[in-house]
Structures are given as C-alpha cells and as structure tokens.
Write a structure and sequence with these properties.
Layout (H helix, E strand, L loop, with lengths): L6 H15 L5 H9 L6 H25 L4 H21 L14 H10 L2 H11 L4 H20 L1 H46 L1
Length: 200
Amino acid sequence: MFGSFDFQEFLSAFIVLFAVIDIIGSIPIILNLKQKGRNVNANKATGISFALLLGFFYAGDMMLKLFQVDIASFAVAGAFVIFLMSLEMILDIEIFKNQGPIKEATLVPLVFPLLAGAGAFTTLLSLRSEYAPVNIVIALILNMVWVYVVLKLTDRIERFLGKGGIYVIRKFFGIILLAISARLFTANLTLLIEQFQKIQ
C-alpha cells in the first residue's frame, strides 16, 4: 500500500481537500451556531465526517459502476461543483442552500454539508482519477485531524485571525479552488475525448 506513496501527490491532495473542506472559512458559521445555543460536538463531527468521506471514497467507485459512470465523467461533473464552491468563496454568494429537515447542529450543517458535503465527495473521486489512493487517504486523515483541532479551538482561532483574517483566507482558497476546477475539467475532458475517439 505505502509503496505507491508519493509526497507530491499527497501534498496536492491535502491542499485540494483543505480548500474544499475549508474549516477555517466555516469558523463564523460554527460561532453563529454556538451563539444560537446549538451544540457542536468536535469528536462526533470529525468521526462521522471521516467515516462518510472514507466510505464514499471506497464505495463511490462501485456506485458509479452501478450507474455506468466512469471516474473521468464524474471528475468533470466534480469540476463543476468545485467551480461553484469557488464562486461562493470568491463572490460571497450562496449557491448551495441547506433546506433539509434536520436541525441538530453537529450533523447538519456541520457534518453535512460543511465537512462531508457534495463538494468533498466529488473532490475525493475526482482526485482518485489522478492520484494513488494511499496519497488521498493520508491527505484525508491529516485534514480530519486539522478539522478536529479547529473545532476544539474555534474561539481562540477566531480571536487570533480576526474576522478580516478569516475573510482573506476564504478568498485565497476560493481562487485556489477555481484553478483546481479548471485543471480537473480540462484533464478529464481530454481523457473522455480520447475514450470517445477510441470507440469510433
């Protein structure tokens, strides 16, 4: 398993997941939930998010095969989702709305859709089309450790960075995501065109 470990792939996967999960950018939302008296359990949120993401990373491929969709096609679709997420971060607009019935803060909106949402799911499978699984899993584990630390120290981090600092970080990672979505789209669209040409 570790024979296919590649530091460059791991680092790229870590940065992509860091930007998509965007726990720093979620600090204002978490603080707002706490102010409203909605409990946020760091252990539960991190554990459930990790289980969902890891489960989808390994079982998502089987689900795609069930619907006769290959990873390259899913990666192109994922590129669109990441593109929309980047627009949210850069332009301060809300595209993904949470209109579900569950009101418990740890599960909704913290676990889903903030930590283990559509963006993170599509990103994991999109990364799988380019990188070895071991590099993505290690990157995911370290991101979850970071998420746990941030959830535990939310108040201190907000005081340290300030609202301006969090705002700047959110914008920066929005631009990173925009570039990643463009790369994913072009790389996997090329693969799809090559596959189509082979069929003909």
